[in-house]
Sequence to fold (1268 residues):
Amino acid sequence: MYVQLVVTGLALGSMYGLVALGYHITWATSRTMNFSQGYAVMAGAVVAYAVFVALGWPFPLALAITLAALACYGALVERIAVRPFFLRASPAWLLATIAVGIIAENVAQLTFGKDARAFPSPLMQKPIIVGSAGFYPQELLVPVVGLTLMGLVQLFYHRTSYGKQLKAVAWNPEAAGLMGINIPRAVMTSYALSAILAGVAGVLLAPLLNVAPQMGTIIGLKAFAVAIIGGLTSAPGIVIAGLGYGLVEAFTAGYISTRAREIVGFALVILVLIVRPWGLLGEKPSRRV
Amino acid sequence: MIDKLGWTLLATGAAAMPLITSNTYYLYVAISVGLLTIVTAGLNVLVGFTGQTSLGHAGLYAFGAYTAALCVTRAGMGEWAAIAAAIAVTSVVGAAVAAAALRVSGPYLAMVTIAFGLIVEGVLIEWGSVTGGPGGIFNIPKPALRTHYWTVMLAVALALWLTANLRRSAWGRAFLAVKSSDVAAESLGLSSYYVRIAAFTVSAAFTGAAGALFTFLNGYISPDSFTLQTSILFLLALLFGGLGRVAGPVAGSLALTIMPELLTSLLDYRLILYGTLLLVSIYWLPEGVIGKVSKARRPGSRTPSPDPLPLPGRGSKTSSPRRAKGRGEGQPHGPLLTAEGVSLSFGGVLALADADVAVDGGSIHAVIGPNGAGKTTLVNVLSGYYAPDSGRLALRGRRIDGLPPYAIARLGVARTFQTAQVFGGLSAKENVAVGVAGPRLGSVLGALAGTPGARAREAAIRARAQALLEALGLGDAAEEPAESLAAGLRRKLEIARALATDPLLLMLDEPAAGLSPAEITALDEQLTALRDEGGPAVILVEHHMDLVMAVSDRITVLDYGRVIADGAPEAVRGDPAVIEAYLGSAS
Amino acid sequence: MRRISVILSIVLAAALSAPGPARAQSKEPVKIGLSAAVSGGSAASGEAIKRGLQIAIDEVNAKGGVLGGRKLELVIRDDEGNPQKGVTIARELVEREKVAAVFGGLHTTVALAQVPVWQELKTPYMGAWAAGTNITRNGKTPNYVFRVSANDDYVDRFLSRYAIEVLKKGKPGLLLENTPWGQSNETGLTKWFGEKGVKAVGVERFNWNDPDMSPQLLRLKNAGADHIVLVANAPEGAQVLRSKAKLGWDTAMISHWGISGGRFAELTGDLSEGVTFLQTYTFLGRQNERGQYVLKMLREKYGVKEPSDVIAPVGTANAYDGLHLVALAIEQAGSTDGTKVREALENLKGEYKGLIKTYKRPFTSEQHDALTDEDYVMVVWKGGKIVPVNMK
Fold:
């Protein structure tokens, strides 16, 4: 049981972390977030399904198309739901991004249908059984890819100059602009990138969870919780929080009950915020007086 | 006139409905509208007035509903007792959630409220022995539909009336002040944390009442009615109807309940419509349907005529602002505020280095220095917005370092800001009224009910506010929205508001910036008059040397965070260090 | 609040007094309502019921309708699986659309919430799917709630009998979804296993959209379960099977009908092999006349090519028979008055050779379920196909 839960926990946790990183990326650049990240996860799975399963095209091509589509989705969200409000310094982007997500879900229902569909993967055929525990190879692939991607994102932001530029925008938009950084483009890029991460999570999870229009909502919420626990400004915090959250969930479900999993998880969020209001590794926003 | 006509028509229509039709479907829909109105009226207090977003109100709704259900089914209470219990329980829960949640803001706050809502939903499902689990609670004795209709309509009327009262009260102003600029609100002695908690609790009470009434609608409740979607619906109804407006909840609830009923043929596209509606309301109706309509209806929308020169002698009084008897009276002229060895760095930058300042009661003490010298930082430290890394601050001998801004304000320190922080959404008079009341807001219940005692206090506050405005030459602008005033007037408003707190010490951060020479002269006269009539001590951060030299009793000069000179104007004027700091070295 | 309130009042008045959809001049149609989840996760079930109803309605109308030439007309409302919406819809269908009877969908919670409304407004309700025992056994007299579908109490007797008498197993592990439907079955299974002196070794629950049930299965395995009784819908059922395969636990599994909805075969692939579950009807294998007719109509109207392509077949079958019974009752009652139709249903004369079975006095004042465990069939997944199982 123990091993079982650890694997499950890490798999899910790394996905929460990956999606949560998406929240962090846009926050780091514009102090806004795509509240419809969950729907982006679903979009990734749905588009991949459409190309790979329905059309029968080869997987690498399907993946490429999916990522491109997700980048467009992210840019679209930014353009419709965030940019007008970012420029007005208004917090309405919160609800606007939720609205876009709701629309996306309905569009998916109309085009994809309402039934859950299977996403075939060679890694879901035979489970690996170790003692009394078993897992599908896909469940191992997930954290491996997840952590690798998270590491790459970190490198991008810390080592490449474009990455640093993106971070600069949030710190001081005027200065960044004066330094020649195209702010609207930077924000849009951050949204596209964040959607891509969510899309990858969707593709990785599709064989495990089945593809359905409502598959992403709860993931988006939990990833948000993870981002908050870790601290919106801290990528390492988010990665750790993601894995931690996944493990807590798995062990709660394993040893207590499944619904308790949600309760414990969200109670954890509140507790962390009481003790460390800006997340485990987050920074307190300075109040400009 | 038209307002009253509109409300009367609506009320008559609502009252008459069960007499006109016995169609239970219509009654049912009307009750649903009513319940949503009550919830959104409460949510309006939180989101509209106070500016805090909650995505977890379905959880509070559940508390109201389940408390009422359990009171009736397990404790055998009657309907009214159950409703009262529901309100009480939900208010307590709301206050607790608020205390935890409102330490943070923005998405952090949103997450806490979401988490709360989801936890409640989960507990409702899991704790079967109490809540009936996923199946919920059945067979709750309920009143006849018609009777219930009257009850709900009465509750709606009550909810709207209470929120209207609240808006007009000191609490209402406090909510709006905290929403508009919590920084400025704190400078007047208001703890934004507690004000927000109060707003949350009020909204919880309303939501709890609506939840109880919901239980008695169907006689059956289950966790399906208390999901995140429900919370989003609440917010959407409020947004669409009009945030911050008393009528907003009515319009929004009507629209959102009736539209799905009218559009039953489009059920496949329900979510798209829902989402689009949300976007539309955010994009094009930032003030909701009500806001849009009322803007259109205002004939010749009064764009305030910018009158930047209320010069003295133009009919406006410029005598010194009358200060009430109180703290300012007969101050001993010894050191009032002392700062010793204050240092503060931001990251690697040393903003203040070992600064010492001593301000005497009843004096005008200027703080000058080149740009970036740390003048505003010093003011921020003295007023409690920044905590110094080291040093001691004392007011009348009592240590004040580490105190939050509102606590220092309550001890008698008032201030203005470099960019005037007037409260948008309030008139000039209401702005000053916030200063007059400060933290003394009276009881929330009194504000809601509009008791005679509360109303008498209100009248006194308004009278004082008007007097202060007149004293600063703003009497004519009393009813104007503060954000529509020209910059110079806004600054005066800020000063009037700061003086309203009857401070021992008034800190002015660049009050002369952007004023015309004539206005600066007027300011000069006002400051001098203030001092001469025994008003508060003044710390004046300024760049206008003429003004500084003319009014100051003492000047402190900062450069790179250090005090490089401190003394009488003439001494400072001739000090070589000062000259070098401003002009660079001589050779 | 300026004139907006005046405008709103006027709009409201106009909307409320707006007449319903235009009616034909000569003979007013008899409306039949459907309250089901047409959107969301269970939408396939709503679609299946709708098809069954429509095929039966067209059949009745082709033969001249009811009450001397009045045609039947279907009015559909989406209850979104939400009980409160269900109650609003119930009132709307009766008070505004003036339906003669209403058919119900998949969700037990919605059906339960609607019961008081049918009683209050004296309109007969015919459940076509939701199996919660208390829907029809609601303690009300007179009872306006009928059902042509499974009743969890009978289902649990059926399943427990199968486990004990046919599989010859005595240590059930119960795995149920955490909903009122799951609750209803937990009660039933405990009762009927108990009648035979058998107690479940464990009762585990899971939620909708859960990806992994390994902890629950592991606990059941460790408790010594020799078979699993599953109450789940297709997506969750699929995840249960995947988790079970992960654990390498090869044990018998019998299930309620939830896994017949959705695309269970597609989701599980080989793993479905041997999973046994009940149906009220199956379109696979030999069909009677009615069955052939319905399949033909499904092909012509809805493009369903093979019997195995029929989505959520029980919904279609239940609704089809249910509609015919209601039409017969209306004819017998000689009116659309709710009380009379109810009485007619409880005293239905003659014989109706239906799809699922031949109905002879299917309802009485005490019995409001037309089908009992005598009528259920057990089927099993073999090679990706559903085949009937011999109960003996």
